[in-house]
Amino acid sequence: MRISTNTIYDSNVTALGQQQTRLFQTQQQVSTGRRMQTAADDPVAAARAISVNQADSMNTQYTANRTALRHTLSLAESNLQSVTSLLQDVQVTAVNAGNGALSSIDRQTIATDLSGKLQELVGLANGTDGAGNYLFSGFQSGTKPFVDVAGVTSYNGDDGQRLIQANASRQIASSNSGADVFMRVKNGNGTFVTQPAAANTGTGIISIGSVSDTALLTGNNYSVAFTVVPGVAGAPNVTTYTVNNTSTVPATVVSAGNPYVSGQAISFAGMQFDIQGAPANGDTFTVTPSTNESIFKTISDLIATLNAPVATSANGGTTSLTNNLSRGLNNLNNALNNILSTRSSLGLRLQEADALQTAGDDLGLQFKQTLSQLQDVDYNKALSDIAQQNMSLQAAQKSFAAVSSLSLFSYI
């Protein structure tokens, strides 16, 4: 078979062009570090790289979300750590205020100190994340949550918790409602509240009590009224008490004529407590269901107690002060437990965010390794290919030069 001169010429030119193209592509791979210059170089790997790139971008966004989450949670935890220290200081101050040797002026000085701590507490409750978002305002991140007007602190936020997408399947709350943290603290023992009447004149001091049988709890209001009958001919006085259910109209007698012994348990309707001291005739004590009491009110009540003059009576004027301080200390303890519970929740969320961040970092590394395998050039192979392709091109050029020097090409 005869091959025309033009065919030989065109074939050699085409071969040279192909060799040069392959050499140029390999040189581009080495200079850019990328194995694929276009999707046509490896369509399957290119499609896979797009998918991995998208997943890596999402993981990068989740990483930024988690960083913001950890920042906010850390600030909130630090803020509540300061609240914890403040409440512990208030507890110590309230205990010291019960010292019988203190004068009214001394207690008023302590009340002034507590007023300063109350304002500090309001400031901590209005803490921000540094970007103007309030930590404890719920969804209302731009609204100042706590406002003190005439000594009464109110909450202006809502009950929401701002959620941050920590990964593809997990949202974590970055905030807490200030109402749950500072306002909704159960008073008393969490089930019921025991309290002396303001008009009491005896020395009876009531305990916070406890639940003896949850099945018998009614949620009603009760009063314990004392009757003192003077002894005859030198005999001691006889003190009895009557328990009334004051939720009914008229009040219903639960039990009557019970002999009173200081410190002995008084039990009814699944509740149990004791009264120590000597209640006077007509003294009453109330037992009501626990309600929410803000930390601010608890401290405000303590301030009012310390500012009030101690009344004098034949049975001792410090009984009311002791009862009020005891109630305040108990509610402070409840508030502190609520803060510690919130801090525990924040700590668990921080721990989870840290774990997700570690997993996200590992996932990001895997994505980058996969992309590198799909896209990056193997320099050893590429450099070897360049040497081989360059040698092939030179050989083709020499071959073409030799063929083109034949006499027939001189006439083309």
Description:
The chain has 412 residues and is α+β, with helices and mostly antiparallel strands. It has helices spanning 5-32, 43-97, 104-125, 178-183, 295-307, 319-375, 379-404; strands at 146-149, 152-155, 163-167, 170-173, 192-196, 205-206, 210-211, 222-229, 238-245, 252-259, 265-268, 271-276, 284-289. It folds into 2 domains: 34-187 and 291-376, f41 fragment of flagellin, N-terminal domain (Up-down Bundle); 203-289. The protein is built from 7 helices and 13 strands. Helix 1 (5-32) packs antiparallel against helix 7, helix 3 (104-125) runs antiparallel to helix 5 and helix 5 packs antiparallel against helix 6 (319-375). The model has no long low-confidence stretch (mean pLDDT 86).
Q: Any idea what the CATH architecture of the largest domain is?
A: Up-down Bundle
Choose one word for the global shape.
rod-shaped
Number of domains: 2
- By CATH, the superfamily of the largest domain comes out as f41 fragment of flagellin, N-terminal domain
What order do the helices and strands follow? HHHEEEEHEEEEEEEEEHHH
Largest sheet: 5 strands, antiparallel
- Largest sheet, order of strands side by side? 5-13-8-9-10
Which structural traits does this protein have?
single chain, 4-stranded antiparallel beta sheet, 7 helices, 412 residues, alpha+beta, 5-stranded antiparallel beta sheet, f41 fragment of flagellin, N-terminal domain
